[in-house]
Amino acid sequence: MAVKTFKRGVHLPERKDATAGKPYEHVSSPKQAVIPINQHFGAPNKSLVAVGDKVRRGQKIADAVNPGPMTVPVHASISGVVKKIEPRTQSNNLEGLCVVIEAAEVEGGDDFMPPLDAFSCTKDEALARIREAGLVGMGGAGFPVHIKLNPPPNKPIDLVILDGAECEPYLTTDEAAIRRNPALLIEGLCIIMKITGVKRAVIGMEDNKASLVPVLEDAIKESTRGFDITVELLKSKYPQGGEKMLITAITGKQVPSGGLPMDTGCIVQNVGTAIAIAEAFQLGKPLIERGLTVSGGACKTPKNIYAPIGTLISDLPPEFMDIDYEKLRKIIFGGPMMGSAVPSINIPIQKNTSGIILMTAKETAEFAETPCIRCGRCIRTCACWLSPVMINIGLNSDDMDGAVKAGLLDCIECGSCAFVCPARIKLVQRFRVGKQRFRAQQAAQAKK
Asked: What is the DSSP string of 100-115?
């Protein structure tokens, strides 16, 4: 099988050995769930429950007051009693309202939706089911799935790409998801193709997961429902799992500046999202739990876990999750390149939490910044073909127009430029702040 890739990017230490090939270990019933009511990219939700309410697993506990297209509800991940509704620090390091549920037996069992046949219902019914299940992209961005699967009529889609690249170091949750239930993954992919009317799909994986190819091909032989589904290997290179990189590697097309994958006729979804879609139809199960990798040098028991949304790692028993607190120096939610450092392990697992990395001092070496020497390494590395050095110059000189022209808004914040920078300039952090400044300027101008 030919191995495809994109130009530029970086080769990172993979550090996946500790969890590669390990199946999910299930967190059956944590003592509590701290569930943020906003876990999606879009309009905010409002709590639908009050302190003292008994809730059942799968029950809707938050939704928008006037549900619009960019909203998805949130559901109880465990049965129990609502003990608190209060702001808590979340994985984005911002305070957000959370529903705190204490585990308890509640009459009635799970509160799932009735099963729905995705291949006999209408497109509107299918999209409504996906929204009601609270599905968002599980690769990290948290974008509502029902929006991505319903592009405007002037953006015809001819290819669905399922992202199993998992290019971030340490993370192996996508691999575990594929091994866990490849048949359910293919069923979810077929549902995506049915909704979008696309006949062809490609499952893209880095070649460090070549052993999964026959697993997927066997599942494809069992049931493709008449769709054309293939598996393609991609070079193990960062950021191969980015939407734009996947599209370029598989199709040769490039997403235009300011554009979206649908501008190239493609839709990209994560493998975990495809499985969640299948469960929403077959079981009526909303997105209330997910798989993730817990690893790093300060984790004595690195593993892939499957846990209810809202679980705190600090609530897991030592025999299940043993942490070396003397060595622990940094906690990353997500991968080490694009994830966020958080202040403690008392942060809830969310719908888009792909990993929790517990790092030692050796893994988090700090370096003092030195002046930029204009070496151009960041330009030669950028997979989006931007000019990070010019973006940085524009931001430092308060030239926002220059920074935008150099590609600020097209930056996917992958961190490749910062990784290769000999001056150790924290480029990604500056670009994130620069985008916030730009949006604030746009908002201020709109009010005039």
From this structure: EEEE---TT---PPPP
CA distances 330 to 137, 142, 295, Å, are 26, 24, 12
pLDDT tens, position by position, 255-304: 998 899 999 999 999 999 999 999 999 999 999 999 999 999 999 999 99
**14 vs 421: CA distance, rounded Å:** 19
Q: Which pLDDT band holds residue 225 (cuts at 50, 70, 90)?
A: confident
| Contact residues for 52 (Cβ-Cβ < 8 A; gap 6+) | 81, 82
Q: Which domains does the chain have, with CATH numbers?
A: 3-20+114-282 (3.40.50.11540), 377-447 (no CATH)
Nearest by Cα to 16 from 165, 163, 137: 165
User: What does DSSP say about strands 330-333 and 355-359: parallel, antiparallel, or unpaired?
Assistant: antiparallel
CA neighbor of 179 nearest in space, from 72, 21, 70: 21
Side-chain half-sphere CA neighbours of 26 within 13 A: 4
429 backbone dihedrals φ, ψ, rounded to 5°: -60, -40
Gap between the Cα atoms of 213 and 231, Å rounded = 7
H or E stretch covering 99: strand 95-103
* Structure-token match 């030669």, residue found: 380
Confirm if 376 and 390 have CB atoms less than 8 A apart.
Answer: no
Q: What are phi and psi of 225, to 5 degrees?
A: 55, 35
CB 238 within 8 A of CB 381: no
What pTM, to 2 d.p., does this model score? Answer: 0.94
How many angstroms separate the CA atoms of 350 and 35, rounded? 8
**Pairing state between β 3-4 and 228-234:** parallel
Return the pLDDT at 75.
97
Give the separation between CA 196 and CA 267, rounded to whole angstroms: 9
Contact 337, 168 (CB under 8 A): yes
Q: Closest Cα partner for 77 from 46, 96, 53, 103?
A: 103
Residue with tokens 């199960």: 285
Among residues 114, 126, 52, 51, the alpha carbon closest in space to that of 86 is found at 51
Phi, psi of 319 (to 5 degrees): -70, -20
